[in-house]
Amino acid sequence: MTLPRIAVDAMGGDEGVQVMIDGAALARRRHDRFNFLLVGDQPRIEAALVAHPNLRAASEILHAEDVVSGEEKPTQALRRAKTTSMGLAIEAVKRGDAGAAVSAGNTGALMAMAKMALRTMPGIDRPALAALLPTLGDNDLVMLDLGANTDCDARNLVQFAIMGAAYSRIVTGLESPRVRLLNIGTEEMKGTGALREAAAELKAADKSLALSFDGFTEADKISRGDVDVVVTDGFSGNIALKAVEGAARFVADLLKRSFASSLRSKVGFLISRPATELLKHHLDPNNHNGAVFLGLNGVVVKSHGSANAAGVANAVAVTARLLEENLTERITADLAKVGAEVIRKPARARAAAAAEAGQ
Amino acid sequence: MTLPRIAVDAMGGDEGVQVMIDGAALARRRHDRFNFLLVGDQPRIEAALVAHPNLRAASEILHAEDVVSGEEKPTQALRRAKTTSMGLAIEAVKRGDAGAAVSAGNTGALMAMAKMALRTMPGIDRPALAALLPTLGDNDLVMLDLGANTDCDARNLVQFAIMGAAYSRIVTGLESPRVRLLNIGTEEMKGTGALREAAAELKAADKSLALSFDGFTEADKISRGDVDVVVTDGFSGNIALKAVEGAARFVADLLKRSFASSLRSKVGFLISRPATELLKHHLDPNNHNGAVFLGLNGVVVKSHGSANAAGVANAVAVTARLLEENLTERITADLAKVGAEVIRKPARARAAAAAEAGQ
Questions:
Q1: Which family does it belong to (chains A, B) (predicted)?
Q2: Measured between CA atoms, how close is A119 to chain B, in angstroms?
Q3: Do A65 and A207 reside in the same domain of the chain?
């Protein structure tokens, strides 16, 4: 099967064009079915490609004069959708010139541009950013939203749950992934009104959805392997994800420091290197890089701004998998099966439907 | 100097009376100036004290017939303030019969009871739960709110910053602790309206406060040692704290698993035990147990529900330190120095002041 090609925004990211190109080249070495549309400043992309003749042969370059900066407001970036590398990468997906887009640029701008060009799926008000996180169980877990939506109401959270379950099914093969809402306690009375309302709706609709709703979970329990999808608003999700990353780095630094504190420990460190390497592999965010915007009519993947080439390659691999597994079609089909009373259409659509029914 | 005695709610916590008594006994062995008022079911407390004649000699028992349960709503618990161990422990602080109270019970009930009995300080709308967290720097950091207030407005956050700085000064000895607001990015436009407003107020008032406001921080950067006080709403704070705890446990479990995976690693583990013990010590939440409600006219400390005896002893030690250092008086004095335009009195008090001025 030929895979649709992947549009890479070569200009996004804190680490520059070379890291994006190195990452694409690494992904290409691993899977020679991958083909790319590299979007950005042509001379700089050409220069970065000199080291990678294999990638060069599998890529087309689409020149973009402009770059979306990290500090730019989404509304500003939207106005430059036709000239920036990010905007043109997404535009290529819209035109069908690429199957998916990957960018390491400004998350807010990427979300706004993707929503504008690709539109949300029927029944979805807002896309959510979802990533796979490691657990102590057999499967990775899907967590969303990780920062695309600062404020979320109950309806957003219910839609996130349905989309997260669809993503989890692709990754885990489970028929009915276990879904929980992130909260500051597991008792029914805990948390915000939106959380309590979403929990009640998911509990009531549980049977009609292809997921098993297990109530609330707390942030210290998400990696134990007893939950497949963790749903939260983008503010809390971003805080939780970064807290985990920071704690992992804190531990790694402490470990290094404590191993260095005596000769005995140094010897222990050398002998136990395979163990600590395994640990490092598990904790390195590059190995979990690649968050997808769920709920769009197309696949758009966000690579971490500070990811290295291995991280970028990982984000490309995630993108390819979502294309192979027909993520967009499967979520759309899931949503179509769900009763309208569960995902509830936006107020405007409801009003339009009511007006039509009245004719 | 004689320390005021500490009222211990012997019935709170998931681990039962014995752990609370064992913890108090451990704290007493370390500091023989400590005296206690042990509040709860007298026969059970007496039974738990059999193993601790030293603690017995330094304690009075106050019988309470009732216990606040973990699932109880704060409003329900408030009605039983005169009969429950938690209510009577706080009541003892109000009467001056104890200098401070420690409880491992229901956080919401403890907050409600403490607020009702002790009242908030002048200029403070809501108390906040603050804890000390380890960093890679020389000092622990103060983080608040950790779950007392699910929703916070800009005024709450500004008040938390002032109180957190006062606590930090006690712990670190710094004249002007570095304060940051927890957010999902460091750019000015990021986050909720309340966060942006609080940042603007703190920036404008920075000079008149005994703190140095450094803008926003993200959850992956709080333990690096370049910030002394992290301010957040109770929902995000609770999520961040638990995410860190969960990540630390995840790493410890992974480490154990990876060390067990080969003979070579097992040998490495044994040789490097001093290093991993140091790590364990740093990561064990019991070693950081004891969160204080800042903003009350009195010291009330929350011990983690699942803390062991060492954790309870740590919470008692935190309590004693706050008494010795006159936490309540120092925060009250700090608040008095701050201009009313910064901490802004509650609307009702402002209206009353206006009415009075109009007479």
A1: Belongs to the PlsX family.
A2: 24
A3: no
